[in-house]
Amino acid sequence: MADTVRIGLVGCGKIAEADHIPGYLGTGTCTITALCDIRPERMEAVKRMFPALQDAACFTDSAQLFASGLVDAVTVCTPNDCHAPQTLAACAAGLHVLCEKPMAASLADATAMVEAARRAAVVLQINQTLRYNAQYQTFADLARSGAIGEPFHVRCIRGGNGTPNVGWSPGADWFVQKAHNGGLLLDIGIHMADAMRMVMGDADTVAGLVDTRLTHIDVPDNVSALYRYRNGGTGVLELSWTMPGGAGYLEAYGTAGRLRMGFTAQPIELWQEGKGDQPVSFPELQPRDNSQTVFGAAILGRGRSLTPGEYGRRALALCLAVEASSRIGTFVKVEHFDGEEDI
Ligand SMILES: NC(=O)c1ccc[n+]([C@@H]2O[C@H](COP(=O)([O-])OP(=O)(O)OC[C@H]3O[C@@H](n4cnc5c(N)ncnc54)[C@H](O)[C@@H]3O)[C@@H](O)[C@H]2O)c1
Fold first, then answer.
1. CATH number of 5-129+291-308
2. Which of 35, 36, 216, 290 has the lowest CB atom count within 10 Å?
């Protein structure tokens, strides 16, 4: 393969504009050669915002882009219900895929995607972005390297007062519609359950409570979950789209200390038993490679993805188990994929 990967961007909405386009423009190995959106005005809008996309070909039908011969890989930034069908079609066309989270809304679809990528021998990376974030990576590295002794409890709360179709991408109502696999659990839960897994490893069982408080939406907008991890430890996850004032932090407790971080500008704090009252803070972190850089390197055989399809499927299993538990009212087993590398 040549030294440059030709990328097709499928879905030119908010995350394409905020993360993928700037991410690819900084890689040095990837060039966006084609755009696809069912709304031509979105392709025109991103071309205006990013002059480097001026010459990119435009498609309103993803199947035509996949068959065009203009790209080696695609990045799927469409609403959640498009992820599985578009990824399967792209793999069938022999294209590498960077797919936004959640990769799918069922484990059957996630498994089909993993198998399609294996069959086609292409890279399938899921955009579980916290794995490319220096603060989360440092937090998890500290927790797993013994800085707090044996981690036995993790706690995450992330709440705001509003839904993404109002604040993040105004008018993108699919975020709050079941038919498009919207809802808080697959939108934010998939990130935060994964962040907790970065600290504790795989979970065994979960008890969940999923609520729909906003009467005009038919998807989860408040979620509480209690995880039992394979290491014997526990975890509590609280998520909300209706929390006045909002809240957000991640904490890990171990046999010899505690880690804490907020989700805004506050640094990580490490408090270790026997080392004084004041926690150590980590205000300056080494920047890490972004998701697009890692994807490009994996395609070129210069590294491996931190979040392959198998990995996105594990994050999905952690969320689907919460929903199942809430539905049936008991603890449920989290689906495992034994034999896969624990990444
Ligand atoms: N990794 C993260 O942190 C993160 C953050 C935000 C959003 N996301 C994910 O990114 C995806 C997109 O989110 P967004 O905020 O950009 O949404 P958005 O609604 O702003 O953009 C989606 C775009 O896809 C287009 N589209 C819809 N159906 C299409 C189809 N069949 N083919 C081609 N284009 C189509 C829409 O016209 C729209 O422009 C979602 O899956 C979301 O969960 C991830």
1. 3.40.50.720
2. 216
